[in-house]
Amino acid sequence: MVKTYSRNKDGNLMLSPHFAVREFACKGGATDMVLISASLIDKLEQIYTYLNCSKIIVNSGYRTPAHDKVVGGNGKGQHTLGKAADIQCYDKDGKLIHAKYVCCAAETLGFNGIGYISSRATHVDVRAGKWWGDETTGNNSIGSFYSYFGVAKPNTTQDTYTVVKGDTLSAIAKRFNTTVQELTLINKLDNPNLIYVGQKIKLPNKSVAKVNPYPEPTRNISKGTAGNDVKWVQWALLERGYNIGTAGIDGICGNDTLKAIRRLQGDTGLVVDGICGPLTRAKLR
Question: Is there a single domain that holds both residue 190 and residue 96?
Fold first, then answer.
């Protein structure tokens, strides 16, 4: 059901826990009337929960027919009916969630109208029919945003990774060729910074652990050691989220690589001696 509100009288009225009338008022400013679909608000709250958002910014809600034409519409679209919103979603760290993940979430949640506006913004609406499109390319017949963007679709048969001491979601994402946002989406994590030892992290179906391209050391690696086997250590440290300095994978165990080894040892319960021997290498495999 679409309800009519007044921008001036009802602007601060909360429609739901996270959305107020004023957020959906026409940006053109020529009218006090604001049309808002109750179903749209319900669906936006579902996105908020599904993506574990800290906030959702409504860039455009209700539009008068005249304003809709000004911004490139035909004056008869879902915005003019109070059934659409162009949104930006932010995660618990306040970082913008890429719109491809928002599109995928909207697909999972059953939105009939979904449009990829840009990497930053997504169009969603509660029309009767179906329209899924990419406004950057003009593709108006997307069958699935998961397939379109190459995002793994959540299911019950996915492989999992068990969190060990010292793990971060960022390091896990790098190790399995995915992103923190994708893992957060699949696992419905309240806070991607709070994972615990023993936790089962679902992995995207397409993800496989990367293979270290360098030879594993057969000697102890310590400060000043050089060679391709040092690159094995540096590569593995990077994959687990440890900073090895601006020199990157240079094959030399300098101060930054030494610090990374020591941090790994401390995080995983090993003796912190800065020497990458058999026990430390085992943590890097």
Answer: no
